[in-house]
């Protein structure tokens, strides 16, 4: 029987959504302060308006229930699911007033892309966007990469009403530290440390390639945030190609790889347990998978005669694969080259790479290599069972911060997620083709949106159909929640409004 929401449940959910909306008001102070410091008064007024709207909406939501009790698992599910949507709708207000978006829907698309660390953009004349507007885009991407709920937990915004269900509802099933709040704080502190280090290095590199100090600092900060949080948004229309620097691409790749690894493994390495890192099923699966994909993609690029020099070919090939599997989405191959020079085989390789994604419990999107490794283990075990005598029984285990049994429930859960992603890949591709786009580019774009990658083959632009924008917004939202959470939430809401059947009396 499906769980139903009562009126009291909706009031509890509204209260905690109000807490997150008030946090949004605080987050919008970042671009407001930046606008004041650099003298962008028009932008400052827009973000002041955004802060005011968020304060009013957040306060009204909290008043729905002044003193709620402890969050239950179904409350946590709803709070997390609706948070991304509510924060996107409210965070879009200053963006749509900036003049860089053709409609409110375009601004919603941009903000959903930022919150979910997808990185796709429909902004117009992005090269002349205000520093404050760019700061807001990357602030959303930073918060979204860490997880809105994770940051709220680390700041203690939910008080004593939290348990593991709120943490797990954001797609994080592992606790780095037994205590939930300490786990959230470790993730935030660890990420902040590497973002700061990345900002220093990238700012210096931007300064050395000829940027003014202030501009170099902002570009270094935005690149560092987009890289570690595997968001891939850019402050200039050419993206990462704008910098024309192999050193910048190298630092970006290191940050991407750090952000693509499970925070639990980062914690184990921090504690000196390096053997856990190299024995882990995720790391081994990732190493095998990336080796195959890099070799195949570089070979495909060779046939396209895209680059004359082998070092450039290897650098661009490896960078593209790293950006694709990690869901970062930076492109060192232009959209025009993607659609006219690169072969369909190379595009298909990147599609598979984007679909799988990086590590579970990291900032990446996609199906995740953990699930691929577990299903591969189960497949090998199934074949062994077929070949073994009827009386033989084998115990299948996998290594992830210790030896763990591979049980039926785990395999079934991973298969469910695999199937849901596959269905959404198919549905989104069919819908895109229905609007007259080529099948190969439609598949590329669909996998990019569903897996929160942000790479584009040219379909994502301000002039694309509104219904396609709505579909991609849903894909980004659902992909960030990994579908199971969203489906459970939607079914529970529908069941709540379904009238109860009266039971007939039997004489």
From TrEMBL:
Keywords: Cell membrane, Ion transport, Membrane, Transmembrane, Transmembrane helix, Transport. The keyword Ribosomal protein does not apply. The chain crosses the membrane at residues 12-35, 47-65, 77-97, 138-158, 186-210, 247-266, 286-306, 341-361, 413-437, 477-497. GO terms for molecular function: monoatomic cation transmembrane transporter activity. One of its GO terms (cellular component) is plasma membrane. The keyword Endoplasmic reticulum does not apply. Pfam families: TrkH. One of its GO terms (biological process) is metal ion transport. Signal peptide: none annotated. It is found in: Cell membrane. It is a multi-pass membrane protein. InterPro entries: Cat_transpt (IPR003445). Belongs to the TrkH potassium transport family. PANTHER family: TRK SYSTEM POTASSIUM UPTAKE PROTEIN TRKG-RELATED. This is Cation transporter. It comes from Slackia faecicanis. The lineage of its organism: Bacteria, Bacillati, Actinomycetota, Coriobacteriia, Eggerthellales.
């Amino acid at each position: 029987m499906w769980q139903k929401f009562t009126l009291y449940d909706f009031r509890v959910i509204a209260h905690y959504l109000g807490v997150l909306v008030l946090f949004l008001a605080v987050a919008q102070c970042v671009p407001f302060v930046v606008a004041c410091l650099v003298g962008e008064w028009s932008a400052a007024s827009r973000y002041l308006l955004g802060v005011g709207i968020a304060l009013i909406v957040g306060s009204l939501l909290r008043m729905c229930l002044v003193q709620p009790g402890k969050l239950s698992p179904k409350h946590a599910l709803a709070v997390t699911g609706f948070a991304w949507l509510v924060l996107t709708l409210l965070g879009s207000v200053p963006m749509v007033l900036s003049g860089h978006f053709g409609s409110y829907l375009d601004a919603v698309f941009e903000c959903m892309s930022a919150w979910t660390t997808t990185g796709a953009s429909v902004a117009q004349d992005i090269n002349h966007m205000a520093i404050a507007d760019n700061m807001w885009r990357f602030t959303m991407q930073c918060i979204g990469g860490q997880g809105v709920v994770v940051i709220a937990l680390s700041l203690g915004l939910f008080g004593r009403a939290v348990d593991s269900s709120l943490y797990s509802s954001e797609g994080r099933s592992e606790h780095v530290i037994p205590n939930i709040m300490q786990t959230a704080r470790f993730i935030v502190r660890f990420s902040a440390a590497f973002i700061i280090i990345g900002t220093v290095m990238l700012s210096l590199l931007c300064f050395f390639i000829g940027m003014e100090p202030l501009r170099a600092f902002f570009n270094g900060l935005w690149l560092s945030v987009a890289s570690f949080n595997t968001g891939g948004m850019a402050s200039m229309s050419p993206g990462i190609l704008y910098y024309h620097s192999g050193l910048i691409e190298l630092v970006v790749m290191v940050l991407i790889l750090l952000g693509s690894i499970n925070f639990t493994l980062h914690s184990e390495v921090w504690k000196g347990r390096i053997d856990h890192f190299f024995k882990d099923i995720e790391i081994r699966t990732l190493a095998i998978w990336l080796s195959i994909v890099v070799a195949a993609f570089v070979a495909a690029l060779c046939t396209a005669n895209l680059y004359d020099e082998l070092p450039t070919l290897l650098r661009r090939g490896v960078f593209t694969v790293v950006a694709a599997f990690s869901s970062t989405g930076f492109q060192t191959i232009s959209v025009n080259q993607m659609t006219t020079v690169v072969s369909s085989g190379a595009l298909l390789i990147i599609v598979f790479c984007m679909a799988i994604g990086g590590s579970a419990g990291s900032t990446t999107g996609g199906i995740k290599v953990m699930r691929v490794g577990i299903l591969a283990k189960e497949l090998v075990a199934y074949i062994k069972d077929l070949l073994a005598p009827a009386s033989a029984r084998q115990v299948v285990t996998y290594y992830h911060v210790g030896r763990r049994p591979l049980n039926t429930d785990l395999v079934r859960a991973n298969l469910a997620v695999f199937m849901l992603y596959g269905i959404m890949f198919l549905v989104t591709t069919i819908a895109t083709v229905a609007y007259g786009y080529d099948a190969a580019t439609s598949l590329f774009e669909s996998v990019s949106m569903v897996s929160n990658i942000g790479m584009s083959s040219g379909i994502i632009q301000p002039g694309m159909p509104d219904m396609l924008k709505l579909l991609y917004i849903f894909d980004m939202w659902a992909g960030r929640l990994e579908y199971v959470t969203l489906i459970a939430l939607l079914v529970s809401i529908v069941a709540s409004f379904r009238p109860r059947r009266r039971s007939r009396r039997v004489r």
